[in-house]
User: Which sequence fits this backbone?
């Protein structure tokens, strides 16, 4: 019987990738996806624990076998590739994608869960592969980043409505409003660029503090008034970059499924143009997409957007393994090796 993989049928994993059985599978993976079904650090509406599963399911849209899209078959065959008509190129062809399942989040035990996230992230960072973390609330970004091995400097590019640098919230220090407060203390932090900050939930004191520390705060107003192309000059260049995307940076009309929505966010294309600049001007070493909360989603829009953003970043960072343009090949090589050993 001839079979054809359909998005709505069969088992779910990110892009239909093989699900790992043990750490040994990491040996053949170029890209590893790890879910963090965590929402116990949310300060408003919970639900992001359902994010990783929803993003995986949404990603299945791109898995038609016969349509020449994506088919992952373990160590023997890489991704078939996706033709990105907007960029006029095929992306991700030949790469081996592995879905590592989810970090075992322990209910009510945030610090134990953080330790498990760090352990899992270190396992991925220590390999020459590109790690993608699916959230989950934003508190997870700190335990991911503290796993960075060695001392190669890292510049964080953080897409978010909120600065997420709360010192504490009524005594709580590790909420989803605090990850970048803790990231600031990491010895390898080379810089922080916040993109899409907006609204009336950000404290002026923190805004001044971030800018006085030499960090960049690119507001949604900056992007809307000046245009993404003009704002690109304020993005880092030639750095090792980790990208953290809070889905609430997008406008609620395109990303309603999140715990702390705020009117007036970025469109898909505004964010994409900025992401393209970040990915092509730097060596991107990892990505997280957080705060997708399916209970508030409408028609699966938010999870679909999150899945698409992951694929876009992978496409910009890694290109096409078989026939990469020179720039893509250089980017892929740099992203998959070397950075970890640099000093
Ligand atoms: Mn955030």
Assistant:
């Amino acid at each position: 019987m001839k079979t054809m993989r359909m998005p709505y049928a069969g088992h779910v994993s990110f892009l239909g990738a093989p699900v790992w059985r043990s750490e040994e599978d990491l040996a053949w993976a170029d890209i590893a996806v790890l879910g963090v079904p965590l929402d116990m650090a949310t300060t408003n509406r919970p639900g992001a624990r359902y994010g990783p599963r929803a993003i995986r399911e949404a990603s299945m849209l791109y898995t038609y076998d016969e349509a020449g899209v994506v088919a992952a078959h373990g160590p023997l065959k890489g991704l078939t590739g996706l033709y990105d008509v907007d960029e006029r190129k095929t992306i991700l062809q030949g790469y081996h994608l592995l879905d590592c399942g989810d970090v075992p989040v322990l209910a009510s035990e945030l610090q134990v869960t953080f330790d498990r996230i760090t352990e899992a992230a270190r396992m991925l960072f220590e390999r020459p592969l590109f790690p993608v973390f699916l959230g989950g609330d934003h508190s997870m970004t700190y335990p991911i980043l503290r796993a960075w091995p060695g001392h190669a400097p890292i510049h964080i590019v953080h897409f978010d409505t909120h600065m997420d640098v709360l010192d504490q919230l009524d005594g709580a220090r590790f909420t989803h409003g605090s990850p970048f407060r803790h990231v600031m203390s990491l010895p390898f932090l080379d810089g922080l660029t916040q993109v899409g900050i907006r609204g009336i939930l950000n404290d002026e004191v923190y805004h001044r503090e971030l800018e006085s520390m030499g960090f960049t705060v690119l507001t949604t107003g900056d992007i809307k008034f000046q245009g993404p192309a003009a704002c690109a000059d304020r993005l880092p260049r030639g750095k090792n970059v980790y990208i953290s995307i809070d889905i609430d940076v997008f406008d609620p009309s395109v990303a309603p499924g999140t715990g702390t929505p705020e009117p007036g966010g970025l469109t898909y294309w505004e964010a994409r143009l900025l992401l393209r600049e970040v990915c092509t001007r730097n060596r991107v070493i990892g990505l997280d997409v957080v705060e997708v909360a399916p209970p508030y989603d409408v028609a699966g829009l938010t999870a679909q957007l999150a899945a698409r953003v992951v694929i876009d970043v992978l496409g910009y960072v890694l290109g096409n393994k078989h026939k990469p343009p020179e720039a893509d090949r250089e980017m892929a090589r740099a992203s998959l090796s070397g950075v970890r050993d640099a000093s």
Observations:
- Residues 44 and 225 are 30 Å apart (CA to CA).
- Residues 14-341 form a domain with the Arginase; Chain A fold (CATH 3.40.800.10).
- The chain has one domain: 14-341.
